[in-house]
Structure formats: structure tokens, C-alpha cells
Design a protein that fits this description.
Order of helices and strands: HHHHH
Number of strands: 0
Subcellular location: Cell inner membrane
Shape: elongated
Keywords: Cell inner membrane, Cell membrane, Membrane, Transmembrane, Transmembrane helix, Transport
Oligomer: single chain
Radius of gyration: 20 Å
Strand content: under 5%
Membrane topology: Multi-pass membrane protein
Number of domains: 1
Protein name: Tripartite ATP-independent periplasmic transporter DctQ component
Pfam families: DctQ
Amino acid sequence: MRAIIKFIEGLSTGGAFLSALGMMFIVVLVVVEIFLRAVLKTSTLVSCEYGGYALVFLILTGLAYTMKEEGLIRINLLTIHFSEKGKRIADIISGIIGAAITTFALYYTTLMVYETWELEMTADTIAETPLWIPQLAIPIGMALLLLQIIAFIARRAIDDK
């Protein structure tokens, strides 16, 4: 079980790496856009569009790592009064609820991407980007988050022994 948890945590770290690449892409895109506008008096015409896509990508691929590193907001108003066993049980229950919600989101965002691909939808911009490409970040991020939630539940269940 611990090997599976380590593997999932490795995937989460990989997601964080992809998130960092998304941030670097945004920085390069902004620098290129500034240079083109200031020096050459022209534009890429796609910097806002692709910057937005990259922002969604970096947020979603970084979610699982953020959860792994306990960077998500937790409200402990009730659980601070629980025993250690009570806290573990509350974590497992909240993890199961989170996994259910994330599974729901994963299912429907996967359907959305598939339908967008099937209908050959493109952005109403000069680039006419096939929308399934940037949308793919959503189910990828949800899948990574779901795996990390499962690892969280497993880690709390193991600690309960």
C-alpha cells in the first residue's frame, strides 16, 4: 500500500512540474508579447488566449501536489476538539466525500472534452485553437487530484492502526 501511495505522490510531483512549466510558458509569452509590442510594434495576437489556457493548466495540474503538501485550506473548527482517532475518522470521511465530488467532476469534464473533440469545436479567436486541447487540462488535473485524495485516505487509514 505504501508503494502505491509513493507512486501517487510521484504523479502529484509530476503534476507540480507540469504546473511550473505552465508558469514558465506564461512568463515567456508575456516577455515575447512585451518585446514585440515595444520594439517591433506588433503582437502575437494569441498571448491572452494561450496565457489563459496555461493559467488553467497550471492551476489544475498543481492541485494534487498542493494537497500532498497540505497547502489547501482546511477548516479545523470542529476537529480541533477531536481525539487523534476522531481526527483520522473525520479525515477519512471528508476524503471519501472529496473523492466522490472529484469523481463526479472528472466524469463530466471528460465527457465535455470528448464532446468538444467530437464536434470539432474551436475557439472564436484568430488562432482557432481546437478547444479539446486546453480543456484536456481539466480531467487530467481532476484525475491527479482524485488519486491524491485516495492516497490521503489510504495514508490516514494506515495511520489508524
